[in-house]
Every structure is written in C-alpha cells, then in structure tokens.
Amino acid sequence: MTTGTTLVIGATGTTGSRTTAQLTAAGHRVKAASRQGTPFPGAESVRFDWYDPATHTAALDGVDRVYLVPPVGDSDPAAVMLPFLQRARTGGVRRAVLLSSSAIPEGGPAVGTVHQALPDLFERWAVLRPSWFMQNFTGTHAHARSIREDGIIWSATDTGRVGFIDAEDIAAVAVHALTDRTAPNTDLILTGPEALSYDDVAAIVTEVTGRPVAHRHLSYEQMRDRLTAVVPLEFAAMLAGMDRAVAEGAEDRVTDTVQRLTGRPPRALRALLENEMP
Questions:
Q1: Contact, 225 vs 164, CB < 8 A?
Q2: Which residue of 17, 149, 205, 247 lies most exposed, with the fewest beta carbons within 10 A?
Q3: Which phi and psi (to 5°) does residue 176 adopt?
Q4: How many CA atoms lie within 13 A of 66 on its CB side?
Q5: Residues 6+ apart with CB under 8 A from 109
Q6: For residue 141, how many C-alpha atoms fall within 13 Å in the half-sphere facing its CB?
C-alpha cells in the first residue's frame, strides 16, 4: 500500500532512528528531522528544533503523517508541542503517532497533556507507551556506563519487575501505526516478552558477558541524591520516583501488543544482549 510522506522527529534518537530505518527499508517516503539535519540513508534530512519555530515550516512541508518524539528533559513539553501540532494539522498532517511512556497516563504529567490533546487534533493517531528500553543496558545510558565501568546497576526498584522492551520493537509498532490502513486510534502499552527485576537483569548480563554484574539496592533518597550529580533536583526526584513506582509493582506486566500489531513476538533481553554486548 502506498502511503504519503512521514516526518520523523528525533530521527537520530533511539526510537526515531529505528523507525526511520524501518520505514525507508519498506519503501516509504520519510523526512528525517533532527537538530543538526543529520543525513539519513534513504530519507530526506531536515533540520528541526522544537524550540525554534522557524524550523517547523520546512519540516512540515509535504508531509501527511508525523512521528513525535517529545523534547528530552522538558517537564512541560506541551508548551512547544501543542502549537506545532495545531500548525501540522492546518498544514495537512492527518495522522500522528506520539512516543510517551508506560509510566505516564493520558492527562498525566509532561507528555500526558499532549496525549490527551491528540485525538481532538487528528482523525488518525496512536500513543506509544513503551516500558523501559532494553537499550538502557547497552548504549550511553547511566546503567550501561555503570555496568561497563563498575559492574554495577544502581536502582531504587528493589525487587520490582519491568517488562523491558527492545527499541526495534517499539519502532516496528510505530511503523504499523503510521502506515497501516487503519490507525490504532488508542494508546498502546508496549513491553517485551517477560517482566524482569534488576537482579534478573544483572544475572543475565553476567551470564552473557562473563563479567560479574551486581544490582545495588538504593533507597528513594539515595537514588535521588545520586542522580542530582548529573541532572537537576526536580528531574532527579522524578526519576527516583519512577524507580520507587517499579518497586511498588507499577511496571510488573507483559502485553501482547507487539505480537498483535507486528505479527511477531518481541525480542527477549538475553537475545538483545547476546547481539549488542561485547
């Protein structure tokens, strides 16, 4: 089926880069938007900055659907996203897929406000609410760095479990939501095939790499104070609070959404680590 042109915002990011790659591989037209306008094979690259409306016009030109990655670390993304989305609708965008989080409900804080507004703006839409990324243990995330440098995962999750998901699977659902004849028109909780504690993750990393990795259990206050070394206090408190919610069971679930929408099961953490860890 022929589709129009998709604007992928955050095309150099964890899910945006994979969504762009999967769209272009399937023959879809893509505008790959990033702050630097970084070239992307098979796509038209365009410069885009949420905080610079002058970049929005060229980005929206000729597109009829958009993949939305909110500005990173902004506690009120709706302030810049909602005016952009109004402009997108006026300019001919008919379908929008928003990246949110399993931890943020419709009408909740931060991107939850954008989630709430989306159905009134677009006739075809979806909100992706993935669990924690498996790539947190393999890329540049703090967990990945502390695994490599210290053999430790620090968290305040206690023995709480998370349905960690591969970013490739998030991208596969994004492609479906952007291109399928019928849009989901709902929010989608996305998880991997199993819920794991950080103790489980440490054990799997140890087995895959042959290097011992331990999970250090911190209190909420210890985690918050540790994070304030790298992020502002308000943001550190929010992140530590998410760990505390995991400890209380908020993320202990597995959904069949990836299988149902893509036709294949989501990748397990062990399989990803075997492929991505030295």
A1: no
A2: 149
A3: -60, -50
A4: 30
A5: 75
A6: 15
Tally Cβ neighbours within 10 Å of residue 256.
Answer: 11
Q: Which residues of 107-122 are buried (b: 16+ CB within 10 A; e: fewer)?
A: eeebbbbbbebbbeeb
1, pLDDT greater than 60 = no
Contacts 24+ apart (CB under 8 A), 18-23: 18/167, 18/168, 18/170, 18/171, 19/67, 19/171, 19/174, 19/175, 19/178, 21/171, 22/171, 22/172, 22/174, 22/175, 23/175, 23/178, 23/179
C-beta of residue 3 within 8 angstroms of C-beta of residue 179: yes
User: Any bridge partners for residue 33, and if so which?
Assistant: 9, 46
Residue 98 contacts residue 111 (beta carbons within 8 Å) = yes
Give dist(CA 81, CA 103) in Å, integer: 20
Q: Which residues pair with 99 in a beta bridge?
A: 128
Radius of gyration of the chain (CA): 19
Note the pLDDT tens digit of each residue in 220-272.
999 999 999 988 888 889 889 999 999 999 999 999 999 999 999 999 999 99
Q: Nearest Cα to 271, choosing from 198, 210, 190, 207?
A: 207
| Contact of 269 with 196, CB cutoff 8 Å | yes
DSSP state of 72: T
Least confident of 25-29, 61-65, 233-237: 233-237
- CB within 8 A of 53, min separation 6: which ones? 83, 84
Return the amino acid letter for 190.
L
DSSP letter, residue 166: -
The pLDDT value recorded for residue 27 is 96
C-alpha distance from residue 160 to each of 62, 105, 216 (Å) = 46, 20, 13
Q: Report d(CA 15, CA 13) in Å as an integer.
A: 6
Q: Which residue has the tokens 């980005």?
A: 59
Residue 60 to residue 217: CA distance in whole angstroms? 46
Residue type for position 118:
L
